[in-house]
Structures are given as structure tokens and as C-alpha cells.
Probable M18 family aminopeptidase 2
Amino acid sequence: MSSSAAARFDRGHTDDLITFLSASPTPYHAVASAAERLEKAGFRQVDEAAEWDGTSGGKYVLRGGAIIAWYVPEGASAHTPFRIVGAHTDSPNLRVKPLPDTGAYGWRQVAVEIYGGPLLNSWLDRDLGLAGRLSLRDGTTRLVNVGRPLLRVPQLAIHMDRSIYEKGLQLDKQKHMQPIWGLGEPHEGDLISFLEEENGIAAGDVTGWDLMVHSIEPPAYLGRDQELLAGPRMDNLLSLHAATAALTAASASGDLSYIPVLAAFDHEENGSQSDTGADGPLLGSVLERSVFARGGSYEDKARAFAGTVCLSSDTGHAIHPNYGERHDPTHHPRANGGPILKVNVNNRYATDGSGRAVFVDACERAGVPYQHFVSNNAMPCGTTIGPITAARHGIKTVDIGVAILSMHSARELCGSDDPHLLASALAAFLES
């Protein structure tokens, strides 16, 4: 890498993102990784079932694949507004079914269900691991990660499907996406018995599981000058990592006018409607309890929410060199061009003019360039947790993110500068 390229981006932040992505094959691992960083910064976990106190300092709540963390400055009033960075922890992938042991013609396979909207072809002929959480008979859960080559979804040889040249690859979600993991006849309980043995759990002690497949290929710099980063689950662990770094920076900054908050939810990829999703009650409950724990009333909560702003941070689409016509003709977000402001007048994104001003102010104070993303009018626009957060809580919300290529692939691509630029903008927003 040339010296000029090395100076362009904060290698330490991007290196740490690589570590974070590698340690976070599932939403449950991702929030555990974020919590570990917060603990090192002095935050402490609070129990939702316990009574909360109104003391200052950093606190966080873990629920499944979601985490809400906040820092109460010394002397904060009950009606002090919040500054929230929202993100999500889940990514499209293949998830293990309740009866996982299957197979055919002497091949042992694992029965999987398609989660979200993955690019199915990106999971073919790739060495895959298995990770998630196991529920035990005593009511506890155990995070597990088999991070070595364990499964593979083999593609049909071209000799048996020459129509692919004319029709393209046609994949049936049920028939063609079940990974193999060995030879022989399937036996009920084999997969879970393997995981029990692998993780030192007594036989028959696992009574439930939330397991998913992940690519074991590690994230890596790419390009002549390593100006690109390739890796899994950037949508949207890139934002979770940046938000965690921004919150820890804000908590150490001293004089804060707001209460900075990290809100990372599960299940964004399938609609956010769960007790750990953005359309659930978790964020509102945590913010309300924070107000009430500081002696506040309903009136204080209403005042705090009225002054609150949320930046919903999620990845967006960088201009694709091979499909330029799919993008808006005048809006071309580029890798390493800084975070993007996402706009859609039909409220698929929550950004409006006043919200744009908040984001621009944060970028200018951080010395960070920014870009705009708008969908081509002829193409349907995706959405985020932004409109859900705005509608559910009555909070001004702005949709932002980082421009990437290959969104929803098992392996995505971003600029090496952009993760640090996003974190810097988020820190300025939380510290203002």
C-alpha cells in the first residue's frame, strides 16, 4: 500500500471493524461484541426485570439480538433530550429449521430456511460455518460458533444445466439451497448432538436453538492500494460497529447537551415486527424508564422526546460500474466519498429538510464529506428502521449510512475510508 493510500483512512478503525465482523457471525454474537466494547468503556448492563436507578453513567440492555445503550451525563435533567443512532444486527442468510437432519442419495444435509432477501447465488460453493445460540434445560442460553468449514451448498455442474447460458441461474429456495455436511444417512438429532459435543454440553441438554449459516472467509482489504474492504454482514454490522465507537467516544467527551443512545435491533430484514425489532416496544420502554428513573413525569418524557433526534444508520447502494443505468442519473454515491444521506419523498426513508440540516451539521463539525442517495424513479426503493422509529415514537429521524456494493450478498464491498468517516460523523452528532 502506498504511503498516500495509508494516510487516507484510519487503519486502526477499519482493522477493528474486521475483528468485529469476524467475531459476529450472528445478531447474538454482534450484540455481545458491542457489549464487550461498552463494558471496557465503563458501561454496565442493567436488568429489564430489576428496578432502575437514576444515576449518571453508561448503561445498556441486552435482549436477544438487540442492544440499547445510553450514557446519562452528570446533572442531566429528567427532560434532557436524547440523541440516538439506530442500526440493525441481522443480515440475510440461511437459518436452521426445527428438524434439521435431512439428506438424499447418501449425502447428509442440514435443512435450512431462507431468512430475509439474500442473493442466493452468493452462498453457493462457499465454505460455511454454523453459529447462533442454544437454549438449555436450565433456562440459560449458550452462544456457539463452528468457525471452520462445516457445510457447503454445491452448485449443479454446467454440464447438467447448459440452459444457464441463456436463462441465467435459476435457484429454487427449497430444493437447491440445502447444504451438505457429510456422507451417510441422516439421523434425527445428529446436528444438535454434534453441537453439544463440540461445545462441552451434556447430551440432551439442548432444548431449543437459533442457528444460522455463515461464510468463514475472513474480511480483507482489496485493491491495489487496499482502498476497499470486502467482508460479510456489512449490512448492517458496519453501522453497529461505528455507532458503538461513537457512543464510547461521546461518553468520554465530557460536556454533553443530550443523552447519547445506541439502539441496534434484530429482524430488520423481515419487517422489524418482534420484541427485539424496531417496530417493537424495546426502545420506547428503555427511554421512558430512563426518564422515570431520573424522577421524571409523563410531561418530562414528552418534552424529552420532542427534542430527540435519531440517525438511522444503514448501508445504501454505491454506484455500480456495470449497472449505472439502475441508479438515479444525478445521484451517484461513491466508495470512500463519506456517509450518505438517504432521501425518499414517499417516506421509505424518514429524512426531511430539517433532518438533513442536523446530519450536515454533524458532518461539517467532524470534517467529514457526505453524499446523497435517491433511488431511480423507475426502481422500487428499499426501507430501513428509520420510518418505523419516527412513526412509533414520534421522534425526528434521519436516514443515513455507507454506500456499498453487493448488498445482501454473503460477502459485501465498501470503501476502506467510509467506516471511519461514518463513526466520526456519528460521534459529532452524539456529542453536539
